[in-house]
Amino acid sequence: MKCLDCGYETDINQKIITCPRCGGLLEIKVKLKGFSFSNLKGRGVWRYKDAIPGNYSKIVSINEGNTPLIPSRIYKQTFYKFEGANPTGSFKDRGMTVAVSSAVNTGYKVVAAASTGNTAASAAAYASRAGLRIYLVLPKGKVALGKLAQSILYGATILEVNGSFDIAMASVMRLYKDLGIVYPLNSFNPWRLEGQKTIAYEIAEEIGEPDNVIVPVGNAGNIYAIWKGFTELQEAGVISKIPRMIGIQAEGAAPIAKAIEKGLNEPEFFENPETIATAIRIGKPVNWKKAIKAIRSSKGTALSVSDQEIIDAQKKLAREEGIGAEPASAAALAGYEKAINEGIVDKDQKNVLILTGHALKDPDAMLRLDARRILINPEHIENIVLGEINDNN
Ligand SMILES: Cc1ncc(COP(=O)(O)O)c(C=O)c1O
Ligand SMILES: N[C@@H](CCOP(=O)(O)O)C(=O)O
Fold first, then answer.
1. Fewer CB within 10 A of the end CB, N or C, for the chain?
2. In a domain, 182, yes or no
3. How many contiguous H segments (helices) and E segments (strands) does the chain have?
4. 346, part of any domain
5. Does the pLDDT at position 388 exceed 90?
6. Is 168 domain-assigned?
7. Is residue 176 a part of any domain in this protein?
8. Domain containing 282 — which CATH number?
């Protein structure tokens, strides 16, 4: 394990989450030995257990991962990795199975997470499965209904703050770093990212290496995790190149996209992040350093998209591709189209868009879309339908 901030190095130790010397972000260095997809057994995240360091004598799993890679109907050579098909409806489940298993195997009884909603739902489900007590810190009034309902369903204790996700995140840091009373389940915990990197393993096993991978970015762990997965496979000679990582943020919460655009080494944080895509309404991403490393070393980039572009992309995904994704996930398509228009990616290359969460997470976002709803007299239903069929002919 190596600290991205001060360079401190230590042997793999599952008890360590942040740098023991400076408190910075740790990277878990994995060198695959004799790795081949043809030797693997099982499905989902734990199919790749040879690539996940640590001791997992007890695994807390709800059969996460093994999500569909759906070919686009609109863009040839483009695929959607639909993470909404995970047990709680987002990619967080991949990280949670590893992080919660680590918590159990290292003897923790109380876990906590700050969340815009999906981490909360996932952490609550895995904590229940493991029999752990869980505290969720949420920005009051800013969590999509489906996600809040999930956290209630799984029986978590919900602590609400007035303010953004960033304030909730700072509160969890206090519980973990200053007081040492919880095991943190957010993505500054590098064990979480070991689970999330299996997105790359699944893509590579199914279609080899893509040219570009387009990922919505919020707290900025996932883009790094996916890049890490591809990097490990490339270093082991399993794939020949690392795809360019293209991060997409909402215009009102775009510290990383702005840093890349301006060529900064450190982002300027957004004090009051705002976007309809509540999952990525984050102004101070804890993993910004990892995300910038993934983007720059893969020769990728980061872009921001407007709320209107996100809404249009969500509609297009649903109404032209048949895929229901939440607004933050639709940002990937909005960003992809922007990247094509700006000549940043070539639509005829092999491109993968990560659709991070299910549409059902955010019913209010769906209900805001234009709908054809007509009150009818059931006895004369044919008048409407036949009338329209005739008009269309
Ligand atoms: C649906 C969804 N998409 C994208 C993201 C962004 O992922 P990350 O925080 O790893 O950048 C999140 C959470 O942050 C999310 O819930
Ligand atoms: N969108 C996230 C924000 C927290 O991200 P994490 O990956 O650091 O847990 C959420 O769903 O809460």
1. C
2. no
3. 13, 12
4. yes
5. no
6. no
7. no
8. 3.40.50.1100
Q: Quick one: which ligand is closest to 329's CA?
A: 1
Q: Residue 207 sits in which domain range? A: 69-89+192-367
Structure confidence by residue, pLDDT tens digits, 25-56:
999 999 999 999 999 999 999 999 999 999 99
* Ligand in nearest proximity to the CA of 90: 1
Q: Which residue has the tokens 């199914």?
A: 206
Closest CA to 165 of 271, 249, 267: 271
Q: What percent of the chain has pLDDT over 90?
A: 98
Element spanning 384, H or E: helix 381-392
ipTM above 0.90, yes or no: yes
Contact 339, 368 (CB under 8 A): no
Q: How far is the CA of 329 from the centre of ligand 1 (A)?
A: 8
CB of 325 within 6 A of ligand 1: the answer is no
Number of domains in the chain: 2
**Mutation to probe ligand 1, out of 194, 224, 245, 280 (largest number of atoms < 8 A from CB):** 280
pLDDT at 147: 98
This prediction has a pTM of 0.98
- Distance from CA of residue 216 to its chain's centroid? 7
Pairing verdict, β 110-114 and 133-139? parallel
Q: Write down the pLDDT at residue 393.
A: 81
Report residue 3: phi and psi, to 5°.
Answer: -80, 130
Q: What is the pLDDT of residues 239-292, one digit of tens each?
A: 999 999 999 999 999 999 999 999 999 999 999 999 999 999 999 999 999 999
